[in-house]
Design a protein that fits this description.
CATH superfamily of the largest domain: MetI-like
Radius of gyration: 24 Å
Number of strands: 0
CATH topology of the largest domain: MetI-like fold
CATH class of the largest domain: Mainly Alpha
Distance between the termini: 7 Å
Oligomer: single chain
CATH architecture of the largest domain: Orthogonal Bundle
Structural class: mainly alpha
Length: about 325
């Protein structure tokens, strides 16, 4: 397993480089000019000097390799400098946002906690709700609980976040007045009362994001459990006198989790994409809103960096899913 993990990490390097090249070239071909927002009163020679300062005068391949160097070498060194007080990145040019004129990774790290408060919590809640629903629905197939779960899951998977977000705002904020409709990103948690306020403003965005997660994973869990409940090893385990709880929760569940692991692992990076719409609705000042703002402002370094971070998450969680296969099923070997 260790050898396989190392081999996959090595293979991931050219994969990520190719993804980075595709992202860079696609954004290079996109229409728009970062100088378009500069006032018309600025002389052309000043605009040209500004373009050179932004690195727009260099050839495409030079800018790509410079971006890769900054992302993989300069930014990690800057992180080490901040953690240990060293000076490895002193004097090194970092990835600079065209819109804010500040380092891109500094802005990303400022927005990351807000996204994690909402996105990570919603995904954990969605998975924790989806797994028992899928297990019980499969075990009690065609029962009232199974039919109700199927109906709710289909509705939750079909309704887009921009609609469900508006619905919960109208119900819980406008009509009932129980929850705030706007997420206060400046709120600081330092005692129990402030934690309660944070919890209240998280409920609606977490509810909207967790709805789709629960709907998707519960359906996969139910289908996988139904496929394994009819296998020969289940009848053998029951014939040996094992209790129904041991048969279902140990033997069947372990084998059923193998395909579900893929859905859960690959859903981690994809939920950040879904959070883009939800963050816009609830005014969460996170990575989703940052990406939308960067696209509107034609801030290519910011868009490139955020998109590439999402790509890294996809490759990373693909690897995690493959490793978990071997842990859940001893028959799977990667030697």
């Amino acid at each position: 397993m260790f050898t396989y993990t190392i081999r996959r990490l090595i293979i991931s390097i050219p994969t990520l480089l190719f993804i980075a090249l595709v992202i860079f070239l696609l954004l290079e071909m996109a229409p728009g000019d970062p100088m378009a927002q500069v006032p018309l009163t600025v002389p052309p020679e000043v605009k040209e000097r500004m373009r050179e300062a932004l690195g727009l005068g260099d050839p495409v391949h030079i800018r790509f390799f410079k971006w890769m160097q900054q992302f993989f070498i300069v930014e990690p060194m800057h992180l080490l400098d901040g953690l240990f007080g060293t000076s490895f990145a002193e004097g090194q040019q970092r990835v600079i946002s065209w819109q804010t004129r500040s380092p891109v990774m500094d802005i990303v790290m400022q927005r990351m906690p807000q996204t994690l408060w909402v996105v990570a919590m919603s995904y954990v809640v969605g998975v924790l709700i989806a797994l028992p629903i899928g297990i019980y629905s499969a075990y009690r197939q065609y029962s009232i609980f199974d039919q109700a779960g199927t109906f709710v899951s289909m509705v939750g998977y079909s309704v887009p976040p921009f609609f469900s977000g508006v619905v919960v705002i109208v119900i819980f904020s406008v009509k009932l007045g129980w929850l705030p409709s706007i997420y206060d990103t400046t709120h600081v948690v330092n005692d129990w009362e402030s934690f309660v306020v944070q919890l209240k403003q998280m409920i609606m965005p977490v509810m909207v994001l967790a709805l789709q997660t629960t709907a998707q994973i519960s359906r996969f869990m139910r289908a996988s459990m139904l496929d394994n409940l009819n296998q020969d090893y289940v009848r053998t385990a029951r014939a040996k006198g094992l209790t129904e709880a041991v048969v279902v929760m140990v033997h069947v569940l372990r084998n059923s989790m193998i395909p579900v692991i893929t859905v859960i692992a690959l859903g981690v990076p994809s939920i950040f994409g879904g959070a883009i719409i939800t963050e816009q609705i609830f005014k969460v000042n996170g990575l989703g809103q940052l990406l939308i703002t960067a696209i509107q402002a034609n801030d290519l370094p910011m868009v490139q960096t955020l998109t590439f971070i999402f790509a890294i998450l996809i490759v990373l969680f693909n690897l995690i899913a493959d490793v978990l296969y071997g842990i859940l099923d001893p028959r799977i070997r990667y030697d």
